[in-house]
Amino acid sequence: MTLVAQRLDAPPVVLPSDGFNELEQFADRPGLFRWTRGSGQLQVPNPGGVPVLALELAGGTARTVLTQVRLGAVTLPVVVRPEPRTYRLLLLANPGERVKLNLDSPTVRVGNRDLGVVVSDVGVAGGGTTPRQALL
Predict the structure, then answer these.
(1) Which residues of 73-87 are buried (b: 16+ CB within 10 A; e: fewer)?
(2) CB neighbourhood size of 106 (10 A)
(3) Quick check: 20 and 40 in contact, CB under 8 A?
């Protein structure tokens, strides 16, 4: 099984994203994260086969957030706890170069920002061959 881990500070050509606030650093532990602005999209590389997506998400201080994770035509409700936690999702095989993921959640207004959920680590693992459309 091939694991493709993506850092949130990766250039947009490596990890295309939309609907996120600026990159931040955790105050109480090492690592970087971004808040969604209520609706965030990530496009992770497709490792081929039947992928398993791993997302580290958090709702924020004392905030549990019902988040809709959309993968194509499939929508999965995920209850995101206040503390960072890794959520793993088994996906359908996809012939495309990337796995497109949408995270939709309610927001809270803090200062001049709308905050949805925290996304820190993103990884996808698969066991097949790389899709033909993938550019090397």
Answers:
(1) eeeeebebeeebeeb
(2) 13
(3) yes
C-alpha of 60 from chain center: 16
> Is 62 within 8 Å of 82 (Cβ atoms)?
yes
Q: What is the share, in percent, of the chain residues with pLDDT greater than 90?
A: 53
Place of tokens 């090492």: 30
70-86 pLDDT, tens digit each: 988 889 999 999 999 99
The predicted model gives 26-39 an average pLDDT of: 93
Residue 51 exposed, middle or buried by CB count within 10 Å (0-12, 13-18, 19+): buried
Cα–Cα distances (Å) from 39 to 22, 115, 135, in that order, read 14, 10, 28
